[in-house]
Amino acid sequence: MNEFDRRWYADPRLHGEDYLLLYPPAILETTAWQVDGLVRLLELPAGARVLDLACGWGRIAVPLAQRGYRVTGLDLSEAFLARARRGAQEAGLDIDFRQGDMRQIPFVAEFDAVIMMCSAFGVLESDEEDEKVLHAVARALRPGGRFFLDQGSREWVIRHYRGRDWAEREGGILVLQERELNLLESRNYVRLTIIEPDGSRRVHHHVFRFYTLTELVGMLARAGLAFRAAWGDFDGSPYTLDSGRMIVLAEKEA
Amino acid sequence: MAEDKPWYDGFFERDYFDIWLGGPVDRVLPPQRTVAEVDFIQRTLGLAPGSRILDLCCGHGRHALLLAERGYSVTGVDFSDRALRLARRRARRAGLSVRWLKRDMRRIAFHEEFDAVTNVFTAFGYFEPDREDEEVLRGVTAALKPGGRFLIDQNNREYLMRSHQAHRWRQASDGTLVVEDVSMDLLAGRNRIQWFAVAPDGSRRHGRVDFRVYTLREFVGMLERAGLRFCQVWGGFDGQEYSLDSRRMIVLAEKGEEVGNG
């Protein structure tokens, strides 16, 4: 698996149009519904201060700010942040978008909630690096503050495992995925090929760590975040073997 | 979920043999199956004749007896009086010498005595919380000589997830129906089974079977914390590759050579 760079998440080639090709356009239609669920499940009081960690291009941060929450967005990618700032400006919103690594959140006891959406957790080089993120989250939360983590469910991936699949996007762009699951590491190695209508190809390599709920709850506890609830989707349905998402709520001990 | 008495308390004295296995032990687990399993154990442990082996949770001695027959010096540990009675009787009949001991697997209390420890047929993951399972592994590390090996055979969690069925039933050889209600507790990572058995005369017994199913990643982390190094994994006693669809997760681990390790 030599083609795989453990710092793939920092590759600027990922932070543009190709990232958007990964997700079906329908994800945009579900954003409002996701934000509704997020607000309800987090029990966010009006005007609460929220950090959107790995906010990307502001898909969640912008509609969240639209509902009156005071939002800060942190992401590694300047390209994503530029897009996010444009989105905020167009909506006439004041959102503090900052460039930074998710292991080094430059806030202490600042937020009522930290959110991490769309499987942004588990991309770092090792479990130890992932754990640093949780420590940084705990530090950024005020006592009693809440952490909302939206991940793909490991059990769903295991139960519906497909080594290869493909999708066709707007304009005839073909997106091919090849996956290799390493059970010793509990990581999925994904090779992504994007084929343009003129036949030109671009290849990306992604690596995702899949945590079981049990593992994640243990990691959260070590970081000072107490597990509160797990759901299978933004509608608050229970987390089961058939859930597509694993949404976890934890609380910083007061 | 929690009831006063853990499910394994008493289960292996009665229900395991009378109901759960589904028939007489030698019919359900025929000798040729044991031969194949012991062939694999012998091959993967690669021990010199006369080496000392601890079979942890030896049950009625299915593997321990065959290992003794093949010239190893075997100790069998189990917590079930009934299983140990069966094992002793079989050893006597076969003229084999095995040291049988009744001990709780969390407190085996051996010190650098064995060249290898085996734990086969899903005899791990009973305890809740996980740290008690980890105590078992620490006991294994202590029991092993430096450089000693540990072979453990568990259910493959990924296969259990993929083939999960909440309601299932089977019929034992005497016509008893064993009806199972299986739920996967994803927070605890445990397979929790409520079962009842309906005998041919209509009488019923009920009970629970409840065990932790570790992912390979989780289990290797636990081995490391207990002072054991992961060496290899297989998906079955035929030596097949470990994959999403293997029935078993068989792990070989090793204790470091350094004196005082673990």
Any overview of this molecule?
The complex is a heterodimer of chains A (254) and B (262). With 254 residues, chain A is of the alpha/beta class. Helices cover 28% and strands 32% of the residues of chain A. Chain A has 2 domains: 8-153 and 211-252, Rossmann fold, CATH 3.40.50; 157-207, N-terminal domain of TfIIb (Single Sheet), CATH 2.20.25. In chain A, the strands form 2 sheets. Chain A has a 7-stranded mixed beta sheet, with helices on both faces. In chain A, a hairpin with a 5-residue loop joins strand 8 (187-195) and strand 9. The longest helix of chain A is centred in the middle third of the chain and has 14 residues, at 127-140. The relative contact order of chain A is 0.15. The mean pLDDT of chain A is 94. Chain B has 262 residues and is α/β, with parallel strands linked by helices. Chain B has helices at residues 15-20, 25-28, 31-45, 62-69, 81-94, 130-143, 157-162, 216-225, and strands at 52-56, 73-78, 99-102, 114-119, 144-155, 167-171, 177-185, 190-198, 204-212, 228-234, 248-255. Chain B is built from 8 helices and 11 strands. In chain B, helix 6 links the parallel strand 4 (114-119) and strand 5. In chain B, the strands form 2 sheets. Chain B has a 7-stranded mixed beta sheet with strand order 3-2-1-4-5-11-10, sandwiched between helices. A 4-stranded antiparallel beta sheet of chain B has the order 6-7-8-9. Chain B has 2 domains: 15-157 and 214-255, 3-Layer(aba) Sandwich (Rossmann fold), CATH 3.40.50; 160-210. The A-B interface holds A 155, 158-159, 161, 181, 183-186, 212-215, 217, 227, 230, 239-241 and B 130, 158, 161-162, 164, 184, 186-189, 215-218, 220, 230, 233, 242-244.
